[in-house]
Amino acid sequence: NRKKIKEDMSMKLENKVAIITGSTRGIGRATAELFAKEGAKVVVVGTKEELGKEVAEEIKATGGEAIFCKTDVTSDESLENLVKTTLDAFGKIDILVNNAGVGGTTANMNQITMDEWNTVLATNLTAPFVLCKKVIPIMEEQGAGTIVNVASTAAGRGGLAYTSAKHGLLGLTRQMSLDHGRTGVRINAVLPGPIATEMIARVLAIPQHPVTMKMGMSPAKRPGEPIEVAQAIAFLASDDASFIHGAALAVDGGYTIF
User: Fold this and answer.
1) Nearest C-alpha neighbor of 14 from the set 44, 40, 42
2) How many CA atoms lie within 13 A of 245 on its CB side?
3) I need a surface site. Which of 78, 110, 178, 227 has the fewest CB within 10 A?
4) For residues 169 and 150, what is the distance between their CA atoms, to the nearest angstrom?
């Protein structure tokens, strides 16, 4: 029960209200589950209702507190509903994790279509911008809040649209930190390397793929697990990271230093 959880854990996020986009699977789901264990009231966000409700119910079954809000992050109306649903349920927003994202192809400038470009940028960059625009005033009125944007080590390399979006997300993180850090809102980013999720499963299944080969020669010699990224997100969202503003924390097993 919840009392037992409190006895067993430090509860670094106790009574915090956290919105986590893209939290029905992978890194987002691991983050939602970890936040709940640390005492946060979690808003699970995704487009698949069955999966979202499953995550929320599993959190509640282990003594945590969670609701699911079906959301299309590329829709302003849907994001407005997400904010309203959160405030109606919990009365505040302490933490926002912009995790929802889509991958792109390795198409170059001559190959990429406008549809692919627009889809990747809308989900990976514009959606975090729009949601931050809605949430930051609420956090400033409260006098405090934390935002963690899930970028990628591919912010410096990868497919044209994906790389552009993730690089842009880092720029957005830093500029928002400059603009709003003095008002009590801390904004940082994590940069996952190859993580064992559905998004890169096909890549990791190919032994001779450049990513797989480089990963095998990195210090960790393996893909990361979603929980390992979630732990970094939880750290940045907690008071343990109170002096960290505008940072980009690589969680990649040394992939980018090789």
Assistant:
1) 40
2) 14
3) 110
4) 8
Q: Which residues contact 198 (CB under 8 A, 6 or more apart)?
A: 25, 26
**What residues act catalytically?**
162
- Per-residue model confidence as pLDDT tens digits over 197-208: 876 777 778 887
pLDDT at 2 over 80: no
Q: For residues 118 and 223, what is the distance between their CA atoms, to the nearest angstrom?
A: 29
Q: What is the DSSP string of 30-61?
A: HHHHHHHHTT-EEEEEES-HHHHHHHHHHHHH
With beta carbons less than 8 A apart as the criterion, state whether 56 and 67 touch: yes
CA 129, CA 147: separation in Å to the nearest integer? Answer: 11
Mark out the alpha helices in 91-225 (DSSP H runs): 114-121, 127-142, 160-180, 201-204, 210-216
Nearest to 122 by CA among 96, 139, 136, 104: 104
pLDDT tens digits, one per residue of 75-131: 999 999 999 999 999 999 999 999 999 987 778 899 999 999 999 999 999 999 999
Higher per-residue confidence, 233 vs 107: 233
